[in-house]
Amino acid sequence: MTAYQNSIEINGVTKRYDGFMLDNISFQIPKGCIMGFIGQNGAGKTTTIRSLLHITNIDSGEIKLLGLDHIKDEYEIKKRIAVVFDEMPFHDSLNAKDMSLIFEGMYPDWDRNEFRSYLQRFQLPEKKKIGKFSKGMKMKLQIACALSHNAELLVMDEATTGLDPVVRDEILHIFMEYLQNGERSVLMSSHITSDLEKIADMVTFIDKGRILLTGSKDEIVESHGILKCDKEKLAELDPEDVVSIRTNNFGAEVMVNDREDAAFKYRDCVIDPATLDDIMLYYVHRDAKEWS
Amino acid sequence: MKLYKSLIYREMKLSRAYYGFCILFFALLITTVLVGLILPNVDEGVAPGEARLGFTLVSLVIPVLGALFVTRDGGNYKKDVNSGWARAVAAYPVTSKQRALAELLMRLISSLVFMVLGSVVTIVINANFGVNILLPYVSVWMLSGAVGLLIDAGLGVIVMLTRDKKQLKKYIVIANVAMIALLGTVAKYIPSFDESIATKKLLERIVDTLYSGWFFLICAAILCAVSALFLFVYARSYERREA
Asked: What's CA A227's distance to the chain center, in Å?
């Protein structure tokens, strides 16, 4: 088995579609980390995930998963990773027991007892048809399948979208447990940033097919801030410090990309901490610069 | 081996309704053929030569229709597309060739099971009239099964050539029209059967051919060739990645 530092390494990946392009994207996920992959709908999250799983071909660039080439070593990689999709791909007429029998043949490390313990924990019936499951139950079943073959990397594509907060919280808790041995990693694409604020170590933000931010979640959140000022003050701000400006009747709220530096430069202004949601929102409007 | 067991199990599970239909159809077909053959002849008796000719031609409707139904796709392709499995399976550790081979094995195994079940007809006919039709029964089963696989391989090619659902429907309509035209053309060359000696001689020659060892070998060779083609087409079809 290859020793590796990064669970995922994406370098200069480009993929062109009619009307959309993944534009030279690069990011890494170190072993043992949860990376939140954020961006609005249509930003390129799913295309990136499909590219790294080799469901879709890329035009250029290089992708490595678990230190292996994503095309040459595709089937070796797929034995050691798990994928959870936003929609469950198991047929309605099958049940959880059937899924165990199916995956047992596919994954050499499939652990039937582990799977059963997840079913018990999630209170999922073994013999009930999947078609009769609720959305939350279906997602839990997918996660139980994903976590029962000792996968080193878990890739989730909008898996918590559409679930109620209680189920989401339960699932996030399970991911934290899953990562405890320090050898496993998670790539979690979502536009529910509150989930990622809870569990992600790193964040990559994609917009219109380009990576705008990637790195430690805490560093990204701590470096950004929302500066509140009146409209006259806006003229004094250095454009280099500003991501975008949200104007309102009373003045403006400005996203600054270096909160500490801005606190020195603009001592007479209040700078509030930014959330991932704020960061996403202000970066999406970076081209317009001013918005309301 | 464990992988194929899993994949075949999944295919079988999804095909339960289709195979249920096949069992009913098959039972009805066998009953109709047996009743049609036995009842008129059981009291009156039948000359040995007549029995061989008549029983062979009538009873072979069982392998012709049976194998054709059993080797076809029972709707699993559509189910896999609708459930999202067709797309998601690309993220699982199974190659397109393994999937295609599992698909072929499933069809050949189910075909074999139905062939053995249907062979009860050959036993009944042999027991009652002393005509052993086992050899032509197996030969025709293989030939008809090959036709079933060939039709699905053809549909597989159509699926590979299409980009969307609308285009798929168009190609299937074209393929059906072409098939009807071909059958119509072939039908023109089939001689009309009457009570004449010439017709009888022709039918006897056909039946002799069905009983020959070389016909059995040709049918086996055709089934092998079509299976290889099916494997190739399905593997290519499963290999196709998103554009």
From this structure: 27
